[in-house]
Design brief:
Blueprint: H1 8-16, H2 27-32, E1 50-51, H3 65-72, E2 78-80, H4 90-99, E3 104-105, E4 112-113, H5 132-141, E5 149-161, E6 167-179, E7 199-209, E8 217-223, E9 231-236, E10 241-244, E11 274-286, E12 288-289, E13 310-311, E14 317-318, E15 321-334, E16 341-349, E17 355-362, E18 367-376, E19 392-400, E20 405-414
Parallel strand pairs: 2-15, 12-18
Antiparallel strand pairs: 1-2, 3-4, 5-6, 5-20, 6-7, 7-8, 8-9, 9-10, 11-15, 13-14, 15-16, 16-17, 17-18, 18-19, 19-20
Length: 434
């Protein structure tokens, strides 16, 4: 697959036509408001267009390699929506403005100094900077995805045979997130105390259904020191015991799905575990949309909420619109030569700094899996999310291209700190969780 890498300035001029008119502005505004001088444009890819096998060549330059193959093979059609700004939480932007000048990379991978809160490195990345990819990784790690505290409550995972379209299993779970440090939205700001282990972030998952997996729980503690190994525990309800996971187990299939624990939230690992290489700035289609305006499914429907529907080959693709957005492409290679993958190619949205598209390659260098995380504008979602300044992860699909299998996800994401108290992330609470 040929990946077209276009320098940021060239893209802005050729694709949008507004770069030359943009006045000099501070790096923080440029980072958080990339469309302030105008929206990206393309001669064919416009709002309302559906890209399919018959016309995909006209859109090839704004598709990542895997998405191009999906459409070319007739597996999926992409409906183009209007590009819009996903404005982030103002206090997060201001924290960036106040603190970013003091942030520095350390001598070694995974080391950083001077960081307080916000986006560590808002400056536009440059191919000439050998550590530009690493800076993007820090922006991702300390990004606003889910904010200080939120939950996916509940979360449905569906395992599908892509070739036959048969549904093999549906898992219902709850997933909770809590930042202990660098907080910018919910009190206490900037840190939660006490925090004797010096944690940065914790993730907790509890399986509700089916019965054979019910009460399975996963707890992950990520530390402020990125060079320190994460701690992770798994509670198996049928065994009624907690066991600590080894480092190698985060690359095992989680609950028999197509995802590794390391795949959660696009990349659920340490910066120091990977080598990050910035490959260039592109304008490509990304899965950003308005949840309330999409085709929603009847299955799992609740009185106040319906989930994103899926279609395409095997039911493996979200029925959503995609926006033409500014993206940073980063090649991510494991430091450990025994890692089960050779690399990921991650596409980070320049405004939200989240990787909504990830291509994963096996150890032979062949494309293995492709991950899509759909993001809804918060003002077109649940009332609790309106005005939050936090884009809502709303759907996902992890497709195993080699085995023709997929795991799809339907979210009910809620930016509500009451759902994720600090007590939920204690190891001692795994046995007694209710």
């Amino acid at each position: 697959m040929k990946i077209h890498i276009i320098a940021a300035l060239a893209v802005a001029v050729a694709v949008t036509g507004f770069a030359s008119a943009a006045p000099a502005a501070d790096v923080v505004d440029d980072s958080f408001y990339p469309y302030k001088a105008g929206l990206p444009a393309h001669p064919f890819v416009k709002p309302g267009v559906t890209i399919n096998a018959a016309n995909v060549e006209q859109a090839k330059d704004v598709l990542d390699g895997a998405a191009y193959e999906w459409i070319k093979n007739g597996w999926y059609e992409i409906k183009v929506g209007a590009t819009e700004s996903f404005d982030l939480l103002p206090s997060y932007v201001e924290a960036t403005r106040k603190n970013h000048a003091d942030v520095k990379l350390g001598e070694k991978l995974g080391e950083i100094s001077g960081f307080v809160a916000g986006r560590p490195f808002p400056e536009e990345p440059s191919i000439s900077d050998p550590r530009a990819g690493e800076k993007i990784a820090w922006n991702f790690k300390y990004g606003i995805n889910w904010g200080d505290s939120a939950a996916i409550y509940p979360f449905y995972w569906t395992y599908r045979n892509m070739a036959s379209g048969s549904v093999e299993r549906v898992i219902k779970m709850n997933m909770h997130f809590l930042n202990f440090t660098h907080r910018t939205k919910f009190d206490p700001i900037p840190n939660l105390d006490p925090n004797p282990s010096q944690m940065y972030r914790a993730i907790y998952v509890k399986v509700l259904e089916p019965q054979d997996l019910a009460d399975t729980q996963l707890l992950i503690h990520r530390y402020e020191d990125d060079t320190k190994l994460d701690s992770a525990w798994l509670y198996l309800g049928f065994q009624r015991r907690v066991r600590k996971l080894s480092t190698g187990q985060i690359t095992d299939a989680f609950l028999g799905s197509d995802l590794m624990i390391e795949d959660l939230e696009a990349y659920n690992g340490r910066i120091s575990d990977m080598k990050w290489t910035f490959k260039g700035t592109r304008f490509i289609l990304m899965p950003y949309y308005h949840h309330n305006e999409m085709k929603l499914a009847e299955e799992h429907a609740e009185p106040d909420y319906k989930y994103v529907a899926f279609g395409g080959k095997g039911g493996c693709f979200p029925d959503i619109t995609w926006e033409l957005r500014k993206v940073y492409e980063v090649e991510v290679v494991p430091v450990d030569p025994n890692h089960p993958i050779s690399k990921r190619v991650m596409y980070f949205d320049a405004q939200t700094m989240f990787s909504n598209r990830t291509l994963t390659y096996d150890r032979t260098g062949k494309l293995w899996k492709t991950f899509t995380v759909g993001k809804s504008h918060p003002d077109y979602h649940l009332p609790v999310n309106k005005g939050s300044g936090i884009g809502i992860d709303d759907s996902f699909t992890m497709i195993d291209m080699q085995s023709q299998h997929c795991t799809t996800g339907q979210f009910k994401g809620q930016v509500d700190p009451q759902l994720s108290p600090a007590s939920r992330f204690a190891v001692d609470g795994l046995r007694s969780a209710n």
